[in-house]
């Protein structure tokens, strides 16, 4: 006993005992039963419990449409010019029945994006946002190239992985 007192001071031993006691209670209650009010979890149990993100969280770039289903973008190129990493490429075009220019091609390279939100702030028509999709991992580099068409790389809907990772507001 004297050897233990020499090696481990009593204050440290008391702290370790208290930590071990609460660790055991929380460990045995995690994902098994309701946690009592005095035992709080400090980690989020994703994906069982939906994640709550900060309101200003910056996720993946999304191109928006208006009430008629038309793309809001009028090709002013403000987002393309202000982007510090030059990940946005827009190609203008004309559409019959529409006075303003229409994006024929709107490409976004998410792989190099730094999520600075300059593009969203510079857009005077509120046609793009950074959504709350936080899980952006993919198995292929090509999945980081987003455009206006395609199943997995469509800018209008969350990516296949992101269907399950969009945080609830």
TrEMBL record:
Residues 61-93, 102-133 form the 4Fe-4S ferredoxin-type domain. It comes from the Bacteria. Gene3D superfamilies: 3.30.70.3270. It holds the Pfam family Fer4_7. The keyword Membrane applies. The keyword Zinc-finger does not apply. PROSITE patterns: 4FE4S_FER_1, 4FE4S_FER_2. Keywords: 4Fe-4S, Cell membrane, Iron, Iron-sulfur, Membrane, Metal-binding, NAD, Quinone, Repeat, Translocase, Ubiquinone. PANTHER family: NADH DEHYDROGENASE UBIQUINONE IRON-SULFUR PROTEIN 8, MITOCHONDRIAL, NADH-QUINONE OXIDOREDUCTASE SUBUNIT I 2. This is 4Fe-4S ferredoxin-type domain-containing protein. It comes from Geothrix rubra.
């Amino acid at each position: 006993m004297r050897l233990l007192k020499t090696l481990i001071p009593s204050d440290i031993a008391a702290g370790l005992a208290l930590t071990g006691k609460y660790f055991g209670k929380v460990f045995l209650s995690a994902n098994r039963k309701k946690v009592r009010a005095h035992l709080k979890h400090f980690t989020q149990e994703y994906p069982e419990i939906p994640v709550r993100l900060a309101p200003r969280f910056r996720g993946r770039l999304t191109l928006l449409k208006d009430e008629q289903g038309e793309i809001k973008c009028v090709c002013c190129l403000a987002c393309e010019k202000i982007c510090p990493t030059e990940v946005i490429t827009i190609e203008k075009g004309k559409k019959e029945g529409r006075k303003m220019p229409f994006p024929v091609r709107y490409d976004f390279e998410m792989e190099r994006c730094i999520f600075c939100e300059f593009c969203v702030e510079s857009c005077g028509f509120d046609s793009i946002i950074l959504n709350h999709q936080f899980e952006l991992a993919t198995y292929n580099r090509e999945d980081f190239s987003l455009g206006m068409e395609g199943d997995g790389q469509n800018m209008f809907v969350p990516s296949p992985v992101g269907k399950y990772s969009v945080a609830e507001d």
